[in-house]
Amino acid sequence: MNELKILAVDTATEACSAALLVGDKVFSRWEEAPRDHTRKILPMVQAVLEDAGISLDQLDAIAFGRGPGSFTGVRIGISVAQGLAFGAGVPLIGISTLAAMAQGVHRLEGATRVLSAIDARMNEVYFGRYELQAECMQLVGEEVVSEPSLLVAELTADATLTGSWSAVGTGFETYGETLANLAEDLVRSQAVRFPAALDMLPLARAAWLAGEAVAVEQATPVYLRDKVTWKKLPGRE
């Protein structure tokens, strides 16, 4: 049986990354590079392909950070992934940036229950909660965009978040005092701030095995916040 080969790319936040799975081997590049994604992402892709000694047309699929995150960053990521997939003749797999961060906390700190929050500006956060199942972080409920205080009120009303949880993302940096009230036992991750393509690979592999890859033209981003809202912020990513 041929080794599964999946390329992952992500530009949805201030970080830019590419990673490649070849069987049980992983190759990756990651850099925090705000506003420089268009220049850095393709060289990163080329670097991981060269590290593995394979070409684009040998891939089985390409995964991409589908959001939520920066409107511009999400668009760059899906455009790059679509272009590469068209050229390689392979399908696409969209991976949540919030889930990728949760997966990163599991990889680096062994967390099994994670709250991911990205600063969405406008006094809001993108938020999701995840629990480990079969070595992959699975979403519990829905990913949302919400004011931090409203989010806390909703999730604490029925004691949803009992026990210990790991917290990750810029949302906890910006609105940490408010979001600290989500759970009595909340441990802030010191190892992860942004998603990494490396952590999208286990999720992409599981999606591939579950038959969830889609044709290039069917790949869609996830903004959570609609485009009309973004128009209220001239120059805002």
UniProtKB/TrEMBL annotation:
Residue ranges occupied by any Gcp-like domain in the UniProt entry: 31-209
Superkingdom of source: Bacteria
GO molecular function, one term: tRNA N(6)-L-threonylcarbamoyladenine synthase activity
Keywords (A to Z) from UniProt: Acyltransferase, Transferase
CDD domains in alphabetical order: ASKHA_NBD_TsaB
Assigned protein family: Belongs to the KAE1 / TsaD family. TsaB subfamily.
PANTHER family: TRNA N6-ADENOSINE THREONYLCARBAMOYLTRANSFERASE, TRNA THREONYLCARBAMOYLADENOSINE BIOSYNTHESIS PROTEIN TSAB
Protein name in the entry: tRNA threonylcarbamoyladenosine biosynthesis protein TsaB
Organism: Aeromonas eucrenophila
Gene: tsaB
